Amino acid sequence: MLSENEWAFDLLYSVAFVIMDKKWVDKNASYMEFNDVLKSTRAQLEEELLLDDVFKIEDMPSYRLLH
Fold it and tell me: 46-55 burial, b for 16+ CB within 10 Å, e for fewer?
């Protein structure tokens, strides 16, 4: 997936950052909850990347958060 699009890493980073920000705000997290939010973000990214219909970053459900 990352080798097919020269911007794929940048897109994935952006999606990850937006997911993390949304989780942080939704949870009203403090600095002490950073690891929990990070783990939750990673789990969501892994789940989305393993979906059968995700062939590129733009197919991820969370990609729409960028727009």
Answer: eebeeeeebe
Q: In whole angstroms, what is the distance from residue 43 CA to residue 38 CA?
A: 9
Which tens digit of pLDDT belongs to each residue from 26-65?
999 999 999 999 999 999 999 999 999 999 999 999 999 9
One-character DSSP codes across 21-32: HHHHHHHT--GG
Structure tokens, 15: 């999606």
CA distance 20 to 39: 10
Angstrom distance (rounded) from CA 8 to CA 3: 8
Query: pTM (2 decimals)?
Result: 0.86
How many CB atoms sit inside 10 A of residue 20's CB?
19
